[in-house]
## 1
Amino acid sequence: MTSMNGTNAVMLDASTLPDDADDEASDSTEAVVSDAEGTNASGSAERRRPRVARVFVYGILPGLALLLAATAGYLKWVDSTVRDAELARAHSVQAAVDSTIAMLSYRPDTVTQNLAAALDRMTGSFRDSYASLTHDVVIPGATQRQISAVATVPAAAAVSATQTHAVVLLYVNQTTTMGSDSPTDTASRVKVTLEKVNDRWLISQFEPI
């Protein structure tokens, strides 16, 4: 009897545990699970940080460096292209001015040498036409009639220019004197086309407009 009662007492004690004990056990379990999840989350976050850093170092930074290098190269190319175009304009305009003055200026006693030197500033079919005109008309007329001419270019402007081809607009004044007669002044506008040959700007067309 004593044994049975003792057993019942033990069972009675177990069945009559307060609800708070269950709640505390449940809360304790949840806390352990929550701590475990927090630890896992923290560990996962710590594992992600090196991965993100590697992506940044090995992926984003090289991409940014490549983009900056490409941008710098493009800007350098644009700057070089602009400077080349400006140089082409300046040099072609100067060549057009100097060549036109040489073509249209001569003295009767040196006309052959003057126009032969001017011929060296031309190229293509225009050079052939100028050589024929000066040989057949200008040199004989200047020698026989004592004709001299002086050309000036008061204004010049580039119409277009690349590294090998240019078009220049010139305003040309030419003063011509025949013998002892009074000088005659002539003003004209000329469109001069030039080609770059062996690093020299040479006239390929000469058109009064």
Note: The chain has four helices and four strands.
## 2
Amino acid sequence: MYHYKKIVAVTPSGRKKYLEVLKDYIINNPLIDEWQLWQNTNKKEDIEYINFLHHNYQKVNVVRVEGATGNAYQIHKFFKYCTKKDTVYIRLDDDVVWMDKNSVLNLVNFRINNPEYFLVYGNIINNCICDHLHQKNKALEIEENIGYDCLDEVGWETPYVAEKKHRCLLNAINKNDVHKYFFKNHILEDYKRCSINVISWLGEEFYEFKGSVGADEEDWLSCDKPKRLQKTNIILGDSLFSHFSFHTQAEHMEKTDILEQYKKLKRNSCLS
């Protein structure tokens, strides 16, 4: 409990190769009371790893729903389990592979103190809206211009640009210079769509509609529901996370050493 609130992380799950990286950031964070793994896979290795996490870590719970075997359009069914009052929920993609040491704390504090926003986003590396802001603020110095659009053809579709984003962040981490990625909190005006790699909501708000979310969860959460409620979403500039890849980038990214670099960072942080 934190300020009389339960803190619950949730992750659509999941791919073992990424969960192995995310796991330590969640398990070792005393602020997080529970980690819900939303089982949405039919791959034996991944299911076995999800069960392993459940059996070996007290804070891990597995949530299963009918029909969730790997289709992204099944994820919306899980939100009905995230409607408890006095609870802060944080949804993290399974391929969030790094987070700054104070990111969760900053996100939770802001979420609790600012109920007027529907969603609070983390500041996410490899998220086109955030990438555009990083580039605008000279934190991301690459030749390619990333547009202010969730599905920008450079930021979302172009695999080698994703690699550049990660290499720039890894360089900043090694130089202890990640603060350059921070920016002033950014309100998503006009219900702008933004990829939901890291988002936070209040259980009592989702209780009002029983966690009934549209099949296109991203469009519903970032655009449709906020518009109906007349409540904006906001990106928290000092809550920094790294998201590995979109499906448009995955084949290329898997051929790089980027994931191993993040694993190395995790190992080193555990030794420090």
Note: The beta strands are 6-13, 34-39, 60-63, 87-92, 96-99, 120-125, 186-188, 198-202, 233-243.
## 3
Amino acid sequence: MRIGILALQGAFEKHAEAVRHIGHTPVLVRSKTDFEDLQGLILPGGESTVQLKLIARFDLEWSLVRFAVAGQPILATCAGLILAARSVCQPEQRSLGFVDLRVARNAWGRQIDSFEATSDEGHPLVFIRAPRILESGTQVEVLGRFRGEPVLVRQGNIVCATFHPELTNDPYVHRLAFRKNHANGLVFPHRESPHA
């Protein structure tokens, strides 16, 4: 599979390594033409407000929406989850509304509070200014928890992680997102973001 990685800002190089590790071909996405012939996409961590500005500057929002609606598999991690969520708080900001989640930015702490842990299911986790899932819709399936809280979820073709799976040695999340028989059928939730 050719897996695109939104490469405007953030930890996209580590995702490229993870994609290669599971036997797929990474493609750095910086323009609308980079979406051609992709079979999957990663929205990486970084700074969500900066990423939103760069998505607007390079006119990529419609390409992202079209890719999601087409049912192609997407992995959204940390800031990518914030972009994909229905609504965002602490502070409120615009989002793309792909997944029926309400999330709080930086809710696991500031940069200085970054930490490593193990999920309730036994997988390694790396939290860096990570968002927290506050609410999820009925179509959202919880795939992983930390201390009982959801940190890995899926809705249709989109897998979202509050943490950075690309910074661990466990390929579980990337394999889960880009296995051949992924779940299709994205249904866009009602967006509640203030500028939607």
Note: The helical segments are 12-21, 48-57, 61-69, 79-84, 172-177.
## 4
Amino acid sequence: MKFCRFGADCFGIVEANVVYDVTQALDVLPQVRYPLPASDPLIANLDAVRERATQLKKHAPAIPLDKVRLLSPVANPGKIIAAPVNYTKHLQEVLADQHLHHGNMINHIEKAGLFLKAGSSLIGAGDNVRLVYTDRRNDHEVELAVVIGKCGRNIAREQALDHVAGYSIGLDMTIRGPEERSFRKSPDTYTVLGPWLVTKDEIDNPGALDLLITVNGEVRQKANTSDLIIDVPGLIAFASSFYTLHAGDVIITGTPEGVSPVVPGDTMVATIERIGTMTVQVSAA
């Protein structure tokens, strides 16, 4: 099933080119008081919401998909965890191009580890990426995004996919330069998640998905998640050996070769097999 957030924090089921407005399904979410839970309430209670949404869909208003503004399918991720240089060919292209590495030490992911992006950088497909420091190179990076569905620490690889709520497309926008990754990748709008959340039952093998991004119709990145150095179960196990993972946490799994600059006025179209396609505009901040 595909779930989206749209408009003024509405909630919908996506089928073909239609969104069914099942916002009332959110009424099953538990009421919370301060201090707020560490998990995103929607993702933590997704099974109950799904059951209610399925009932409501029978009589729900149907809205053309192209008439809604899509928000990030996860509103409040506790952490956005990112995997650097997790495709061998991308590692090779970064090492070979001074305009990409800027003298930074570039290591294989198993040496570099993971990094975090600011939650305030998160937007949905219906919002523009607003570039800052347009005098510097700003790059697109298309990635499979994994949304964690339940809490876990030191998760075994064999149980890792049991902790997944679903999958989305991620864009890890990047300012090139000498600073730390987290700093250059965390301005507002520099993490795009969308266009919706595809529940895990729709994707039995996240390690065999084609992914693609075009800019103004030109293919820039094209690969398959089978090329990941550390695959999805491995990334979940790796991340959970350092952090407790909570429902709503997002892991973006790394980008393949072909990263390249975008400028205001560009149109990015990102596609991942069995998830869908999202179109994201680029503007200046």
Note: The chain has a mean pLDDT of 94.
